[in-house]
């Protein structure tokens, strides 16, 4: 692939197109939930009903949501009530509320995004009792809301640019009062790929330098060196959106090498096709019966161009190295 036409500006891009990807993702999740792929009673509070999406998009998001939930659950099983979760570039994600419904123990849950995004989320949370009441941990919980931030005893929403390491560090340590000695999971879904290499690695090194039991769960594009990727990049270019972190998205090895270089000692990646095929066959049968899909090859191409990676800087004896997906099954796509 000739990469020259797809090279982004030297180190930055307009933030607005990147922020708009949150609306795209939320719309896709709402569409899949409306079709019955999985249950999420909270996504409706962040976006109105939307157009139907192609079956391959619905199934791709199903695999993504299920993998994130599976790996978060495994982390919580290991960490118990001492778990801290930081969702980077969280957008309108609803994982916190779904974990609350499942009564999962949490020490702290932090959502981070651009102030322009968190300002909208604050607005929706203020208006929706179903969202606000889950944040309060009892009647005596003091919830502090500002234009772009929310703080309670467990839940925190902070507006900060991930490239501003001083602001991020201050907010996490002072406003959210995270304990760097406790097991802390950082979730990153299609975030790192939009960051220039120097900014991305500064963020990753901050995580491994600061948090003594850090786990990273990263979902990003991969195999960005073929015709399918070329079309993807061209479509993004027309939206003035660029993968500044394209170098690390060439294959699974480049994804893992970056994380090793930034201080993670245990790293493992899977193509989303592997993730899809590892899901319980009963679930695959259920979701594949929801709607007919004619282009099976398109789904396979899509799943082969995204990956999920688990990395940690913990000692093996702590058990974080045991965070794994189920063995890959033989289900065909």
UniProtKB/TrEMBL annotation:
- Identify the Gene3D superfamilies for this entry: Vaccinia Virus protein VP39
This enzyme's EC code(s): 2.1.1.233
Q: Which GO terms describe its cellular component?
A: cytosol
* Binding sites annotated in the UniProt record for S-adenosyl-L-methionine: 64, 89, 161-162, 189
Query: Span of the secretion signal?
Result: none
Q: Where is this region: Disordered?
A: 1-20
Catalytic activity, reaction form: [phosphatase 2A protein]-C-terminal L-leucine + S-adenosyl-L-methionine = [phosphatase 2A protein]-C-terminal L-leucine methyl ester + S-adenosyl-L-homocysteine
Question: What Pfam families has UniProt attached to this entry?
Answer: LCM
Q: Which InterPro entries match?
A: LCMT1, Ppm1/Ppm2/Tcmp, SAM-dependent_MTases_sf
Tell me a GO biological process for this protein: methylation
Give the UniProt keywords, A-Z: Methyltransferase, S-adenosyl-L-methionine, Transferase
What GO molecular function annotations does the UniProt record carry, in alphabetical order?
protein C-terminal leucine carboxyl O-methyltransferase activity
Show the SUPFAM superfamilies listed in the entry. S-adenosyl-L-methionine-dependent methyltransferases
What biological function has been recorded for the protein in this entry? Methylates the carboxyl group of the C-terminal leucine residue of protein phosphatase 2A catalytic subunits to form alpha-leucine ester residues.
Q: Which family does it belong to?
A: Belongs to the methyltransferase superfamily. LCMT family.
Q: Know the name of this protein? A: Leucine carboxyl methyltransferase 1
Origin species, per record, is Galendromus occidentalis (western predatory mite)
Q: Which gene encodes it?
A: LOC100897554
